[in-house]
Amino acid sequence: xxxxxxxxxxPGADKREAMDRxxxxxxxxxxxxxxxxxxxxxxxxxxxxxxMVAGRQxxxxxxxxxxxxxxxxxxxxxxxxxxxxxxGSEVNSRQDIQYLPREIGDAAKNELLTEAGRxxxxxxxxxxxESDAFVDCAITGMGxxxxxxxxxxxxxxxxxxxxxxxxxxxxxxxARKRNLADGRRLFRxxxxxxxxxxxxxxxxxxxxxDAAWAENRDDDAHDKIAPGESRADRGLDRDAxxxxxxxxxxxxxxxxxVVMVIDPTTREPTEMDEAKAxxxxxxxxxxxxxxxxxxxxxxxxxxxxxxxxxxEVGPAPAGDQFSYAxxxxxxxxxxxxxxxxxxxxxxxxxxxxxxxxxxLDMLNRQAKxxxxxxxxxxxxxxxxxxxxAKPGGISWVNDGALMGGRMKEKPxxxxxxxxxxxxxxxxxxIRDSSGVNLELLGQKQQEQAGVLxxxxxxxxxxxxxxxxxxxxRARKHIGRVRLYFIQTYLxxxxxxxxxxxxxxxxxPLLRDSTMGEYDVIIDDAPASPxxxxxxxxxxxxxxxxxxxxxxxxxxxxxLPYSPFPDSFVAKMRDLLSQAGxxxxxxxxxxxxxxxxxxxxxxxxxxxxxxxxxxxxxEGAGAERDGVEAAIAQLTMQAGPPMSAAA
Length: 646
Hints:
Elements: H1 13-38, H2 40-54, H3 60-69, H4 79-92, E1 95-101, H5 107-123, H6 126-140, E2 142-150, E3 158-164, E4 169-171, E5 185-193, H7 194-200, H8 220-223, E6 244-262, E7 269-272, H9 274-286, E8 293-306, E9 310-315, E10 324-328, E11 330-332, E12 337-339, H10 342-365, E13 371-373, H11 381-388, E14 407-409, H12 419-434, H13 438-441, H14 450-463, H15 465-490, E15 492-498, E16 505-510, H16 511-514, E17 518-524, H17 529-546, H18 552-558, H19 566-576, H20 584-638, H21 642-645
Antiparallel strand pairs: 1-17, 2-3, 2-10, 4-5, 5-6, 6-7, 6-8, 8-9, 11-12, 13-14, 15-16
Helix pairs in contact: 4-6, 6-15, 10-12, 17-20
C-alpha cells in the first residue's frame, strides 16, 4: 500500500487521498474483526482470571443457588499469595538493560547510552510498569508495555513507559512465536472521555471520534451493567452525546520495494523510492555520471488512529519496530492464545471453596448436642433446661425415666469419612498446579537446612522460568525502542544524570556521542537484592584467600554489590577513584579508604563465618541427636541383647 501522503498537491490528490483513506479503514477494520474474534474466548477467560485473583471466585449462577439454599458462599483466596510470591520474586531479581557496541570505536559511547537509558527509565518508573505487566502475564498469559514520548508534560518530549490493560489489546491472530515476535499487526481499543478524544484530535468531527464498530458484541461480560452504572458510563451508548468514545490505534508493517543508490564519492548506499531514484539517475546520466543501484524489499512500520474513520495515519513512532512490548505465558496451541498460571489453579480453588462451604452447611444443619425426651420425663422442664447446660449442676428427672429410655442424647455431628482429606487435597493442589511451593511462599513451618530451602526455592523458580524468560525478551524489545528514542529524539543536548565511573554527574545527550549500532544486553541489575546477596556472599567466602590481591580498582567494582548504605558506597568510591592520583594527599586518602573498606569487609566476613559456624554446629547437634534417638528406638524394637536374654 502506497503512502497516502505522496503526491500531495498534485491534480486530483484530494480525491486519491480520500480513496486511499477509505481503502485503509476497510482494511484495518477487517483485520481488527478477524483478530478480535480469534481472541474473544481468551478475553472472557482473562476477565474471569482477574476475578479469581481479586477474590470473586464464585460464578453468578453458583452464588445464586447457594443463597437460595441458605448456604454461605465462603471464599478463602489462596491464589493471591501465589501471584504475589511470583511478583515479589520478579521484583527481587530485576534486570538491567545495557548497550554493547557493534562498531569499532564505540566502546566509550555505550557507557553513556547505558547510563542514559537507566536515567530515563528511572524518571519514567519503568521498572514498576514492567513489573505490573509481568503480573498481568502471570494471571492472564498476556502482558503489555507501551513506550512513547510525552510532549504534554515536556515540550521537548519526555520518555514514558506505561503498563497497558491486556483487555484493550488485539493482536495478530496468526502470530505463534513467544511474545508475538512474528506478529504483523496489533490494535489497542481504548475507551476515553469524549472531551479527551476531542483534545487529541481537534480537527476531527464529533461524529468521527467513536469507533462503535470496534465494540465486541460477542463478549457478554462487556455488555453487563453494574448496579448504579449507566450505559453511558461504560461507553455503550454510541451517539454524539455520550460521554465515552472508543479510539482504535493500529500499528502494522508492510513490505515496500526501495532502491539503494550508491554514492560514487563515499560508496555509501542511500535509500530512495522508485520515482526519486529514477529522477536522480536521469540527472546523473545527463552530466555523464554513472551511478550503481540495487533494489531491496524492506519492512515499513505504520500507525493509524481510527474512530468512525481514519483520524490520523503516518509512520510508526518507534521506527522499524512496534512501540508496544508484549509478554506471553504458556501457549494454548489449539486456540492460538496464551494463558498464565491462574488457569491451572481455578478448579482446585473452586473445589476448596465448595467443600468448605459444604462443611459449614453440614455443621449448621446437624445437631449441636442436647436431649430428646418425653414431656413427662422431668418434673420441671424449665429447671431441667437451665441445669442441663450448667457445668456441675444437677438435673432431676422422674423415677424410671432413665431406665425406661424416655430420655436420649442427640448425636454429635460427624463429617463423612475422607471429607477433610479432600478439602486438604484441593488446597494443596492450588500450589502444586502453579508450581509455587511453600518455600517460595515463605510458609514452610518445619526446620530445615538453609541449603535445602534455597534449592527448593530454585526448583520453584525453574518451573516459573518461562515467565521470567518472556520478561527478559520483552526487556530486549524495550531496550531497542528506548535506544531509538534516545538516538532519534532525545539526543538534542538535554542534560541527564549519569551515575557511572564512581561519581554522579550531569552530561548532555548529543547525537554525535549516541549514534551507532548497539546490541541490547539484559543483565541482573546491581541493585537487585538477590544479585547483591549472591555476589557478596561469594566474595566474602573467598576474601580470606585473595585479600592480599585486593586493589582499589577491585573494591571500586565490588562496592555496588555490597550491603552497605548507598551514601557510604558513594563516599568510598569517591575516595577510591583518587587512588590513581599522583599527589601525596590523593595517595593518602586512597590508603585510608582502602584500610576502611578492608576493615569493614573483614568484620562482615568474620560475622558471616561466625554465623555459618554456629548454624553448622547447631545442624550437626540436631543431626547427632536424631541419630542417637533413631538408634535408641531401633534398640528398643529389637529387644535386649543376646547375653542379657541368656
